[in-house]
Amino acid sequence: MNISNAPKAKPDAPAMGTLQLGQAELEKIFGGPISLMPSRVANSPRLFHGKFAEHLWCGQCKRTFPNGMYRQVGEFRRCPYADCLAHASVDAMPWERIKTACPEYPDIPVAGTRYPIELAPAAPSARFF
Questions:
Q1: How many domains is the chain built from?
Q2: pLDDT > 90 fraction of the chain, expressed in percent and rounded
Q3: Which of 48, 54, 68, 77 could connect to 88 by a Cys-Cys bridge, CB 3.0–4.6 Å?
Q4: Is residue 71 part of a domain?
Q5: pLDDT in tens, 69-106
Q6: What is the pLDDT of residue 9?
C-alpha cells in the first residue's frame, strides 16, 4: 500500500513522497487493526466512492486514508483511525473534493494529518404545514 507519510529529512524540507508500507506499519499509523479491500472490489459507487478517488477524507476526524482501507467493527466498516467512529464509506469524501475547497492542501495527503475544512451546509428544506 502506497501512503504519503514519509518523514522529512529536515523540519523545513518537503516530504520525500510515498512509502510502501506493510500491515504492521499501517496499523501503527492508524492506531490499531485495519483491513484493506483490493481495488477490484471497490468498483461499486457505494463502496468507498468507487475506483475514482485514491484517498478519502473522513468528515468526522478530518484525516485522510487510502481508498479501500477500513476498520471492521462488528458489522460496520469504520474509518481506519482507531479513535474515530465514522463509517468508512458513508462519512468519507473523495480527497479531490476537499482539495478543490482548499487548494493550499497537498495533492497527496499525509496520513494522520488533520485537514480541517468547513463545508457549506446543505440548504434547509422547505417544509409546509
A1: 1
A2: 26
A3: 77
A4: yes
A5: 899 889 888 999 999 999 987 898 889 889 999 999 99
A6: 41
Q: How crowded is residue 94: how many other Cβ atoms within 10 Å of its Cβ?
A: 18
Q: In this structure, is residue 70 part of a structural domain? A: yes
Output Rg (C-alpha) for the chain, integer angstroms. 16
User: What's the order of all strands across the beta sheet hosting 55-58?
Assistant: 64-66, 55-58, 92-94
Pairing assessment for the beta strands 19-20 and 64-66 based on DSSP bridges = unpaired
The C-alpha cell at 17 is 513522497
Read off the C-alpha cell for 124: 434547509
d(CA 127, CA 83): 37
Q: What are phi and psi of 62, to 5 degrees?
A: 65, 25
User: Is-contact 114 63, C-beta < 8 A?
Assistant: yes
Does position 61 have pLDDT exceeding 70, yes or no?
A: yes
Q: Which domain holds residue 48?
A: 31-105
| Residues, the chain | 129
